[in-house]
Model the fold of this input.
Amino acid sequence: MFRTKRSVLVRRLWRNRAPGGEEEEEAAAGEPGGGAAAAEARAHVCGVGRGCCPGKANRGSRASAGAEAELKALTHAVLKRLKERQLEGLLHAVESRGGARTPCLLLPAKADSRLGQHWYPLPVLLCKVFRWPDLRHCSEVKRLCCCESYGKAHPELVCCNPHHLSRLCELESPPPPYSRYPMDFLKPTDCPDSVPSSTETGGTNCLAPGGLSDSQVLQEPGDRSHWCVVAYWEEKTRVGRLYSVQEPSLDIFYDLPQGNGFCLGQLNSDNKSQLVQKVRSKIGYGIQLTKEVDGVWVYNRSSYPIFIKSATLDNPDSKTLLVHKVFPGFSIKAFDYEKAYSLQRPNDHEFMQQPWTGFTVQISFVKGWGQCYTRQFISSCPCWLEVIFNNR
Done:
């Protein structure tokens, strides 16, 4: 019996579902340790510690097998309602893991589906199937600005492309001690001419070889076209020139199937360190930097964690700064303009004449730094970015 093209596409999509799912949560909940085992299972699903828990997904009981069958039946029922072109677009998005530019999958906004004891909107259901099996609620995801449904409060049709959404990164409370830095580093310091533009303490802008600091580049009179510039570093060496950003969204990547933006793979680097080369090869799809109404968001598109330090990510009353770990597929609001201006001292004329690192965000690929790592400073990280915002 010949299969139709639509049925073949549905089968291919189901084979590309995210590993684990409801049955993994059920199995983990029944194991000794309860919540810890469930958390470990969810971490395995999301790519955290992948390969550290082999065989866990195969320990399911009859209940987990039933949950898998229910999820399969529901997914097939939803997919079979799609047109052939929609199925092709969805498959392209899933197989490329979001690396390719794919169209929105517009479906009725009120077509919720029931799975077990829960009702899920279609975007959440497809994200649950193809990206995050532990996803429970639409409040846990954030729509990317490339999506047609971005910014629309109550549309009749909503995009259900799972790679047009990201998982929200919740700030820990209390936060883990990945790294803490004294807030004093935000104050200007006198810099010797021989110091590079980012010092060991991770942020003081001193004179670059061209005679201007990175912050002074942003403060050229009459130039308000760019909202930030990006510098790429390998350990203590800056590679390439500053990348000026005018568009509201920027992809920063090493290897992306379809992408325009800051390609780190095209920069000429003389660094022969094996660790640098290894980390560079893991940058992959990299990150997406987006200026939105409420601030600047960073979306981790790569397959490995990134680490971020920003003055606006922590409590304004805190005397320390944290380095935050962001897992693949997650987004975090890395910079908040209102918080940055409130941290600044507008009446201090002497302070205003100096570069201020509260308008700078540092991002390290793959490797973290701070008290819990062998690298105490970001300048010891193999591959990292410095994003300097235009405060004009």
About this structure: Confidence is low (pLDDT under 50) at residues 21-60, 173-213, 346-355. The two ends are 67 Å apart (CA to CA).
